[in-house]
Amino acid sequence: MNLNNQQYISHRLRRRTLLAYLLFGMLLACVMLALSWLTLEQKWRSAMNNSVSIIQDDLAAALAAKNESQAIATLQTLNKLLPLREAILREKQGAVLLRYEIERKEGAPWHAVFGFLPTIGAQLFELPTTATAPQSAAKGELWVELQPAVLMEELAQQTLPLWSTGLACLIILYLFHSIQLSQAIERPLHGILQRLAQINYNRPARHLLPLRGALRIQDELDVLASHINQMLLGIDSQLRRRKEIEDEIKTHRRHLEKLVHERTSELVELNKKFVQQQFDAKASALAAKQARWEAEKANQDKTRFLAAASHDLRQPLHAMSLFIEALQPQLTTRQAQEIHRNLARSLETMKELFNSLLDISKLEAGVLKPKKEHFPLQRIYDRLEVVFRQQAMDKGLDLRIVPSRSFIYSDPHLLEQVLVNLVSNAIKYTESGFIFIGCKREGKRARLLVWDSGPGIPPDDQGSVFKEFVQLSNPERDRSKGLGLGLSIVKRTCQLLNHPIRFSSQLEQGTRFEIIAPLGLNKSQRPTPPKATVAPLRYERVLVIDDDASILLGMKALLESWQLQPILAKSIEEALDLCKSYKQKPDLIISDLRLQAGVTGLDAIQRMHQHFRSNIPSLLITGDTAPDRVKLAYDSPYPLLHKPIKPAQLRSVCMSVLKMGAPQTS
């Protein structure tokens, strides 16, 4: 233990005691200075009042007579009575009649010491008009200022002896207090520290500190020694206990070493088995990863195959729909018109099959973005009534749609497509009985029900109803019953909307589907806008770019039937050459998304815009269902139509594009 700590403590005590005395001395000096200042102020103000009262009649007379020499003589008399610095004689209105100044005496040392005190040697006196007039009839004023050096010197003469006496007393008290601290604290503390330095902590109980009191504790140092003794006794007890614990630890350590040796041999065997199991698990994981990769690759190959097949089949179908629409005005006989209607219905069925493939491609590409809003559910139920009432009656089914006043928060278009697919499946597979459509409120959610009395789904097949291309009741693959994508689209759309879907089914008792959707806010419906009328197209030149000759011929026949002037081209270069020959830019550009040599319709539209230095209204047509191409088209600023296209739809989109103008592209 370092005994220098005792010196450090004694020095700290002396410094703090000295600081306390200094603060007390400064406070005492300030009190003495304040008392001296007040006494001096009273003295000089009394002297100034008495002196001015002696000469004020003479100054009043000099002021009345405007006798400057008499006023100066009177102020000289006042200077003998008081140590004047400056005296100003002026009229009541403020005009200065006489300024009497005395040379300023130097008193820099005392001014530096007492310069912070306020000025006490300046005062304003009012003078009467005559020597016998009362002061209330004053006409003049006298400003008197005394020499600051004289006042500071007198203040120092009164204060310094008091300060010297007080400082001597404080020094004596501090020395006496320091000696007392040394006797009462430093020596006992030094003795305690010496005893602590000599303690052998292996046997601390033999070095207990003595107490200065016989049977009782006298002061804080005795209390400290008592607590140190208790600590030493506690340390001694802990050392004894520690030795006992160390002996027990040695015994347990020998026993533990024996157990470790035995368990080590067991772990070696277990580790061999674990390594073998880990190797087998890694092999199984690699095999599973390989299988998953092959399954994903097969799914991607399937998607690419469907996209390619869909594009190749949509091309002739699109051309066929254009030719059929252009052929309609040419048919005059009833039999020809009936054949035309049958052809149109067949094309519509094929279009629905391809639209199912397109919906799957959109979902895989992630281009479908739900646009949720608050809307009445009855609006969807009314459309279901219109679409499916006749189909149900044709099959002799009882279609029950329970009216609902609930509002739903969802994407109305996507939710309607989900319900349309479910109701369509129910009518397709139910031969007799009923189809029930309703809604049940549960708190802040609604359960949308589609329940049929059809043949039901076998338990073994219920796990695959939402898979693609699965048709449980269509082993002969009748294409009039679809491709088996309806429930797969339903499942993916519900996941996109974040609406849980579940179903229950029993053989010969029917199937019930439930969709859980959040309830919306009940707001007043907006008035239905009036139905738009078909206005004639006002633009004559329409540039069509497509690498399929049959589609170009079909577009030519259709556009000419609308009294338009088509410009047909298979490539960008051919389109530029034709436009140069016309010497005018087209009013509308219609381009296929996929052209020859890896060129896209986006490239063609941009080249035409750059050539004509104008954003010509444009739209894209595609038969692709590949997710990457679908996403590329949807990310573009141009409207996108999927082949085969209804001529009425094409006409409507052309009118909308021409009305809005071309989008601004970078």
TrEMBL record:
GO terms for cellular component: plasma membrane. Residues 235-262 form a coiled coil. It holds the Pfam family HisKA. It catalyses: ATP + protein L-histidine = ADP + protein N-phospho-L-histidine. Its EC number is 2.7.13.3. Keywords: Coiled coil, Kinase, Membrane, Phosphoprotein, Transferase, Transmembrane, Transmembrane helix. InterPro entries: CheY-like_superfamily, HATPase_C_sf, HATPase_dom, His_kinase_dom, HisK_dim/P_dom, HisK_dim/P_sf, Sig_transdc_His_kin-like_C, Sig_transdc_resp-reg_receiver. Residues 541-658 form the Response regulatory domain. The chain crosses the membrane at residues 20-40. The modification 4-aspartylphosphate is found at D592. It is an enzyme of class 2 (transferase). PROSITE patterns: HIS_KIN (PS50109), RESPONSE_REGULATORY (PS50110). GO terms for molecular function: histidine phosphotransfer kinase activity; phosphorelay sensor kinase activity. Residues 308-521 form the Histidine kinase domain. It comes from the Bacteria. This is histidine kinase. It comes from Hahella chejuensis (strain KCTC 2396).
